[in-house]
Amino acid sequence: MSTTPEQATWFADSFTKLVANVEQAIVGKNNTVRLAITCLLTEGHLLLEDVPGTGKTMLAKTIANTVQGSHSRIQFTPDLLPSDVIGGTVYDQRSGEFELRRGPIFATVVLADEINRASPKTQSALLEVMEEGQVTIDGVTHPVGPPFMVIATQNPIEQAGTYRLPEAQLDRFLMRTSLGYPDEASTVRLLAEASNRNRSSSVKPLITSQAVVDMAALAADVHVDPSILVYVSRIAEATRREPEVRLGVSIRGCMAFMRCAKTWAASMGRHYVLPDDLKELAMPVLAHRMLLDAEAEFAGATVANVLSRVLSSVEPPSERAAS
Predict the structure, then answer these.
(1) Which pLDDT belongs to residue 97?
(2) Taking 50 as the threshold, does the pLDDT of residue 9 lie above it?
(3) Which residues make up the CATH 3.40.50.300 domain(s) of the chain?
(4) Cα dihedral value 111, 115, 120, 121, nearest 10
(5) 235, CA 20 to 30 Å: which among 144, 218, 259, 282?
(6) Measured on CA atoms in the order 109, 110, 113, 116, is the torsion positive or negative?
(7) Count H helices, E strands: the chain?
(8) Strands (DSSP E) along the chain, which ranges?
(9) pLDDT single digits (tens) 209-232
(10) DSSP sequence for 276-311
(11) 45: helix, coil or strand?
(12) How far apart are CA 107 and CA 103, in angstroms?
């Protein structure tokens, strides 16, 4: 059953309240907050990549506080082991049996702070849980949700002692975005409240974890015209044909693109997707899934420029999606 106009209106109102709740701590970054909440309600994972001191960790903690579920924080370091993330079985001498000790990955919202500082072996421990919502310990699978969301941060400036995220893991992040520096008015406001060092702690829960699941289900039923599906397919194909691109958008990326567009449309109070929804989401959803040729990068090519060129070359549907 498709989402009705009334349901879309309710979704947009609830979405606006969630954004306002997060903006109590994250000042002057409305679009980034909207993207993060879209990621939450699409049941995806978010990668925050930015320079130090812009509020990446605070955004993640604020979203966790907004959801009335469990949340955990994992500080990724070179000596972190996979068992430190997912847990393991421990022998109990009193009972004479092995018992499961759940790791911090068993939470509604998991903050993976400075994820690129962990070894590839530890990073790979997240592949199964991010894709399938479960972990396998000693041959036994254990579900972690729903809802379940990983919010990872990484600093693109300090690369010493870091391990680049492999393409397979990047593809499991629904979005990659950044905060950047605030404007002057927001900076002045933050300076005036500088004594409050933990702004996220004042953010109260606004939505239950079950409500997140319900809103995600509602967004999943937003109408998509077949012409929109063709448009997404052509965009993906165009990224693969670009001579500067070594790895284009995958099928997983196309599906993520479509799911995000549905949630974004619902957040605007619409029960159908428009081509403009896809254009707005293309950069945060698709850019990190594309890999440029090394020579092209050396020559000054960027993923942003290539993706912009692709969006300009692929003709969007001329007719509005059926309502």
Answers:
(1) 79
(2) yes
(3) 1-220
(4) -30
(5) 218
(6) negative
(7) 13, 13
(8) 46-49, 67-68, 71-75, 87-92, 97-102, 109-113, 134-137, 140-143, 149-154, 175-177, 207-208, 245-247, 291-292
(9) 888 999 999 999 999 999 999 999
(10) HHHHHHHHHHHGGG-EE-HHHHHTT--HHHHHHHHH
(11) coil
(12) 9
Q: How far apart are CA 310 and CA 184, in angstroms?
A: 34
CB-based contact 18:66 (threshold 8 Å): yes
Look up tokens 């293309």; give the residue: 282
Q: Is residue 151 within 8 Å of 112, Cβ to Cβ?
A: yes
Q: What is the DSSP letter of 204?
A: P
The CATH H-level superfamily of 222-317 is Magnesium chelatase subunit I, C-Terminal domain (1.10.8.80)
- 302 closest CA partner among 220, 226, 244, 228: 244
Which residues touch 20 (CB under 8 Å, ≥6 apart)? none
The pairing of beta strand 207-208 with beta strand 67-68: parallel
Structure tokens at 216: 């995600």
Rounded Cα distance between 255 and 171, Å, is: 11
pLDDT at 146 over 70: yes
* Residue-level pLDDT at 159: 63
Phi, psi of 299 (to 5 degrees): -80, -5
Is residue 94 within 8 Å of 82, Cβ to Cβ? no
